[in-house]
């Protein structure tokens, strides 16, 4: 059986949990990063030397990096609807997955840590303002893409890219700030509501 290691408050762990829901895969879940399951323990560092979640164990195969894990799971199950095999279609999904993990995440991380997690290390008001402005810019990029596709991030059908992007968008909804009017984004979340795993791992009420 698949085993997923990591606290489910982590956006990156939720990517994996939501992907498993889409695939209809059973899994065992261990909440590393909480209580006695510390990420700096020798047991965990033997699995991921970075000390970060999630980690996937598939029998004796161990994998870390959330977007790599969800690509692996979709490929393992032959789920071409989530992760297509034609090179151009796959590249479009990969493009948005990579953008989420780099550009988008960097935009929102400081503001989220300051305004939601109340991290003492993120108390620079100017840095918060810059992060919020950058975050809003990236939300407008998503808005334009959804206007263009008319449905989902990488095109007309739901894919792995939507799991990663939607979880970051959810953080935007959950962060106390002024939210611009983005009708395509709201319609997008309405479409996602019917997806397996959405209510469990990606709802506006989820921190």
From TrEMBL:
Q: Which PROSITE patterns match?
A: GST_CTER, GST_NTER
Q: Where is the GST N-terminal domain?
A: 1-81
Q: What is this protein called?
A: Glutathione S-transferase
Signal sequence, start to end: none
User: Which species is the source of this protein?
Assistant: Robbsia betulipollinis
**Residues of the GST C-terminal domain:** 86-207
Pfam families attached here?
GST_C_3, GST_N_2
């Amino acid at each position: 059986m698949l085993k997923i290691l990591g606290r489910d408050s982590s956006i990156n762990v939720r990517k994996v949990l939501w992907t498993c829901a889409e695939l209809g895969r059973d899994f065992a879940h261990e909440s590393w990063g909480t209580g006695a399951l510390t990420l700096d323990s020798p047991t965990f560092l033997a699995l991921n030397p970075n000390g970060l979640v999630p980690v996937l164990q598939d029998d004796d195969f161990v994998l870390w990096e959330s977007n790599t894990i969800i690509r692996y799971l979709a490929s393992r199950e032959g789920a071409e609807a989530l992760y297509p095999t034609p090179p151009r279609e796959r590249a479009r999904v990969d493009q948005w997955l990579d953008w989420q993990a780099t550009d988008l995440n960097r935009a929102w991380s400081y503001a989220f840590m300051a305004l939601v997690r109340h991290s003492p290390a993120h108390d620079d008001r100017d840095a918060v303002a810059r992060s919020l402005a950058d975050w809003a810019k990236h939300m407008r990029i998503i808005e334009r893409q959804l206007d263009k596709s008319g449905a989902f991030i990488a095109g007309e059908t739901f894919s792995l890219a939507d799991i990663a992007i939607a979880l970051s968008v959810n953080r935007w909804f959950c962060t106390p700030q002024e939210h611009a009017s983005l009708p395509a984004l709201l319609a997008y979340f309405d479409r996602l509501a019917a997806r397996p795993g959405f209510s469990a791992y990606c709802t506006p009420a989820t921190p």
